[in-house]
Design goal:
This is RNA methyltransferase. One of its GO terms (biological process) is methylation. This protein has 10 helices and 12 strands. The protein has about 250 residues and is α/β, with parallel strands linked by helices. The protein has 2 domains: about 90 residues, Ribosomal protein L30/S12 (60s Ribosomal Protein L30, Chain: A); about 140 residues, 3-Layer(aba) Sandwich (Alpha/beta knot), CATH 3.40.1280.
Amino acid sequence: MEKITSVKNQRIKDWKKLSTRKGRNKANQYIIEGFHLVEEAVKAKVLIDYILIKEDLISIEWLTDLKVERIELSSEVAEELSGTQATQGIFAVLPISEHSKPQIANKPYLFLDAVQDPGNVGTLIRSADAAGFGGVVLGDGSADLFNPKTLRSAQGSHFHLKVYQENLTSWIKRFQADSKLVYGTALDERAVSYIGEKPQTCFALIVGNEGSGVSSELLKETDKNLYIPIKGQAESLNVAIAASILMFSLYQ
């Protein structure tokens, strides 16, 4: 088994670049860190290029049975590669692969319009997974799926459902062409309270940017726009909280 002990090793330099979108696009790979994420990848049986493991963890039983190339790291190298203050000392390098678009969606999908915060995007993916949704589409201006903070917030849910990074307009048309409702979220004159809205088996729900919400152009294309009545003094809800309420309410 190869062991890397120098932070100047070229492979470590290349893997460290995977923390940037430019580096990921060039290598067509991304990196995950921590026991939970690596275990979720293993359970999902996704393709893993390498598992990188700190020297004092190399004998962990469930890792020794994997048919994946393992590389041992010194403690110094593991800390250099880590994106956290206290690394658990385990990483996996995975290829970036694209999902094929479903011919006919049979579960709800969550559409994100320019949701910029990686933590929000990851939480939204995790909530969509928990709510039983079939997929998430990250529209233009949204944080990158493979951003380390997005991945940490998603907690492995991107292994359980399909996530796309594409323009939302074509997806809206796909759902409507298949007679599936597309809900927007807004406070415009068309918007109605989500309370009492009849649950659907398949639909699309669009949530928008943390500051400006769903764009007016997309709201013109929706079948119905929903809002959540606020009883207290808060001006608004965090986008991930609002979306979670709507997803669990609309899909039962």
